[in-house]
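testing teh design pipeline on a random one, pls ignore if ur not involved
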């Protein structure tokens, strides 16, 4: 049975049992507690916990792409060395949200395994949690008691992460046969490969909170997970997932690239590469970029680990990008977005590989030098240097030490890492401390979140609900001149978020509003009081007129985003943005610098949209409906279930909580000021609009006028060209003047000898000319650059003098050193007072040699 058929059979089986088939959710979950989607249940977490109502039907099935690299359930270190570990895999699952529970889950699983996959019953075993008598009973209806094993929490309790849904589980095992596996670990519960877990049925009953307590879920639920890779391997009679049709095409391709035959025993590197190319391709295709931290750093670690294994196979140039074609060929029919992103993903990988290849050789040299000195533990300082200077992630160094049986001094590495972070933090001058500790929780409990009314109005009569001092502690009043934070019952001030700057303004006649920020959902304005402010006061809140400019720049950012996707391609994903009164900045994923034609087109697209105009329309929608309607949402961003969707005609549609113009023609004009790189695969555009754009255009004109005045020409380009030509001519003249200097020379045994101190001119040309003029020549020129710097150059032709020895001798008298070839040599001296002496000795030297 091919992997494709296993996947289809599973989804069809559960569809027939009334389950809705759900497409795989993104690898970056809509959940800040997880690095990656690491199990099939992750997209349904909030249904399990009851935060989101049960769907209809309340039973689902999916084939979910997962990544286990970093965070809980991290398999990276083992990949390549075992038959089953992967960074990327597909998990088949069926889910019940309070509908069926253990009895049906077990019956379905048994039916699928024995009747669809037709695995022989005498090869199957199951495990249950030691306290789960219910599951133990139910299983006995399907399988003999002797084949049911009881284990504790370590084996039979599953949880998504440190927090989240969890519960006891029951696993189905397949016996691969004592004839193939017979180590002392090959028993049920042992570490051997004979008994292979193929399916995990989790009986979800609890939710674990941050402090570790477990509370019951609203309804007992089911989450099951079956690894497509291992089931495919079993169905194909293979003992390793890597021997199945899911991996062999990659292994063959790697063998083709390195020109060596793959053998299982020595083939870890082939397997590492085959696994890693799948993770890397899927992550990039889904908008994750190579980065110095977070998910992007895990992505970088995976790629670099693969590149290093390629290096071990003798591949010394970028190659991973070529394997993207294999991923698309193998998986593109099920995951159709892969083909769309194929070219840009290849380009991103190639560039990242090139970057790593520039340091890999020197890094390996440092590693090997240290390895030769290592007795017990590999130095944490060197591991840190490898990381910091050569881009070797720590787990890559650990991986390189693995077959030597050595470990890294991780404690020292962590210490150096912490020091570096502290240094970076000290150098960072941020504004607004969102992690600030203060009385926010108290305010939330007492008042809940306060309402933002600033979409509709820029002024309001509001009441002061609470005041905080500059340390965020509650106070009853702020005196004249004092600074603090104000919570209004409803506020027109926009709190900084989504890249948009926080509003400023005033409380009429009472206070200046300097900034507005969000703290744990509370919208608080930072004020400086010009009158006493007390809790309970009614004030008139007035947002600064700057807001109009901010809104224009924010709407222009949306148009820019749309233009980028239109002109560069749909791989463009927002990676950050900042919107201020007089400028905007937009970071986005794109593998290379933009050409000036691309920039022109983008600018033209945005300006045309402005001229055409389009009315802003906002709708509050369900997140899923919003995404389905084509609104741009950010990968990895945590959205509420209800979101605000903003569209400008058919030009742009995005999820956004910010404030905007009513019609895009209010933006006026739009100019790109700068395009630059932020990090690998991420570009930045800085732009301006509205009155800032006008000011910008005017300042350019002014600058040009000044240039014209300075050049005394109305055609500055012509004038510059003329100036450049003049400079070139002058340089040539100076050169000629120097070379035509009459150099005094004398004859020693037929050789024309010149030893002189040259005031100016191009020494090398002078020497060449002298050598051209005479059949046998020896010339030494010294040039005083400063009191302590003398250049000595010598040329020899058809004479038994070695120029290298000659200049060295002179340089030593001048307190320096140097040397060179027999016919031409240079040296440097330090002591100008010795010049005469040096000249005299140089003459002696010649006479002696030519005598
Ligand atoms: N969540 C469980 C697992 O990942 C079952 O799907 O094993």
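output:
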């Amino acid at each position: 049975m091919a992997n494709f058929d296993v996947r289809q059979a599973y989804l069809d089986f559960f569809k027939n049992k009334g389950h809705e088939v759900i497409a795989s959710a993104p690898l970056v979950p809509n959940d800040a507690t997880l690095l990656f989607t690491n199990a099939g249940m992750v997209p349904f977490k909030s249904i399990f916990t009851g935060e989101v109502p049960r769907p209809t039907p309340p039973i689902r099935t999916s084939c979910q792409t997962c990544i286990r690299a970093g965070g809980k359930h991290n398999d990276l270190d083992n990949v390549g060395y075992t038959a089953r570990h992967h960074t990327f895999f597909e998990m088949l699952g069926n889910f019940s949200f309070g509908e069926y529970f253990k009895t049906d889950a077990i019956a379905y699983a048994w039916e699928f395994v024995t009747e669809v996959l037709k695995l022989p019953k005498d090869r199957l075993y199951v495990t249950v949690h030691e306290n789960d008598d219910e599951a133990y009973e139910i299983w006995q209806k399907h399988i003999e008691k002797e084949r049911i094993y009881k284990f504790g929490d370590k084996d039979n309790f599953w949880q998504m992460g440190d927090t989240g849904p969890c519960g006891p589980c029951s696993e189905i095992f397949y016996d691969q046969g004592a004839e193939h596996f017979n180590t002392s670990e090959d028993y049920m519960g042992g570490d051997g490969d004979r008994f292979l877990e193929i399916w995990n049925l989790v009986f979800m009953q609890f939710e674990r909170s941050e402090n570790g307590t477990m509370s019951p879920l609203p309804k007992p639920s089911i989450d099951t997970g079956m690894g497509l890779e291992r089931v495919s391997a079993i169905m194909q009679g293979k003992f390793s997932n890597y021997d199945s049709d899911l991996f062999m095409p990659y292994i063959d391709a790697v063998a083709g690239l390195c020109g060596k035959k793959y053998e299982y025993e020595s083939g870890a590197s082939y397997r590492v590469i085959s696994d890693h190319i799948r993770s890397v391709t899927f992550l990039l295709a889904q908008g994750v970029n190579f980065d110095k931290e977070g998910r992007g750093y895990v992505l970088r670690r995976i790629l670099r680990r693969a590149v290093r294994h390629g290096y071990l196979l003798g591949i010394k140039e970028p190659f991973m990008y070529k394997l993207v074609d294999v991923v698309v060929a193998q998986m593109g029919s099920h995951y159709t977005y892969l083909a769309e992103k194929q070219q840009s993903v290849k380009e991103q990988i190639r560039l990242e590989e090139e970057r790593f290849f520039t340091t890999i050789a020197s890094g390996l040299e440092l590693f090997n030098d240290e390895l030769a000195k290592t007795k017990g533990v590999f130095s944490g300082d060197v591991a840190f240097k490898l990381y910091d200077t050569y881009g070797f992630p720590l787990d890559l160094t650990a991986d390189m030490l693995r077959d030597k049986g050595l470990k890294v001094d991780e404690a020292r590495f962590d210490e150096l890492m912490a020091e570096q972070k502290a240094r970076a933090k000290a150098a960072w001058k941020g504004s607004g401390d969102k992690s600030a500790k203060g009385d926010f929780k108290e305010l939330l409990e007492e008042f809940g979140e306060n309402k933002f009314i600033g979409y509709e109005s820029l002024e309001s009569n509001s009441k002061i609900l609470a005041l905080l001092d500059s340390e965020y502690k509650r106070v009853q009043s702020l005196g004249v001149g004092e600074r603090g934070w104000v919570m209004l019952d409803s506020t027109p001030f926009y709190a900084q978020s989504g890249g948009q700057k926080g509003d400023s303004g005033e409380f009429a006649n009472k206070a200046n509003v300097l900034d507005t920020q969000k703290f744990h959902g509370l919208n608080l304005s930072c004020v400086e009081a010009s009158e006493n402010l007390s809790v309970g006061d009614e004030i008139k809140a007035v947002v600064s007129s700057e807001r109009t400019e901010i809104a224009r720049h924010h709407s222009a950012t949306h148009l820019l985003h749309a233009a980028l996707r239109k002109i560069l391609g749909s791989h463009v994903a927002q990676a950050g943005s900042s919107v201020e009164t007089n400028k905007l900045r937009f970071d986005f994923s794109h593998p290379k610098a933009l050409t000036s034609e691309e920039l022109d087109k983008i600018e033209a697209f945005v300006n045309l949209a402005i001229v055409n105009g389009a009315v802003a329309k906002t709708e509050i929608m369900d997140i899923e409906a919003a995404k389905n309607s084509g609104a741009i949402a950010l990968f990895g961003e945590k959205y509420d279930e209800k979101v605000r969707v903003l569209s400008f005609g058919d030009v742009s549609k995005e999820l956004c909580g910010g404030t905007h113009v009513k019609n895009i023609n209010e933006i006026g004009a739009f100019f790109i000021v700068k395009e630059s790189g932020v990090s690998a695969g991420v570009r930045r555009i800085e732009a301006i609009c509205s009155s800032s754009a006008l000011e910008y255009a005017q300042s350019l004109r002014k600058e040009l006028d000044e240039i014209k005045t300075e050049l005394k020409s109305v055609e500055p380009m012509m004038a510059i060209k003329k100036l450049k030509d003049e400079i070139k001519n002058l340089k040539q003249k100076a050169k000629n003047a120097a070379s035509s200097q009459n150099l005094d020379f004398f004859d020693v045994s037929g050789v024309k000898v010149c030893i002189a101190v040259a005031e100016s001119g191009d020494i090398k040309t002078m020497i060449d000319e002298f050598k051209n003029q005479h059949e046998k020549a020896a010339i030494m020129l010294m040039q005083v650059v400063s009191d302590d710097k003398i250049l000595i150059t010598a040329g020899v032709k058809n004479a038994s003098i070695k120029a290298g020895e000659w200049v060295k001798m002179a340089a030593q008298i001048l307190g320096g050193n140097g040397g060179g070839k027999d016919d031409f040599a240079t040296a440097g001296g330090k002591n100008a007072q010795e010049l005469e002496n040096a000249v005299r000795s140089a003459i002696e030297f010649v006479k002696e040699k030519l005598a």
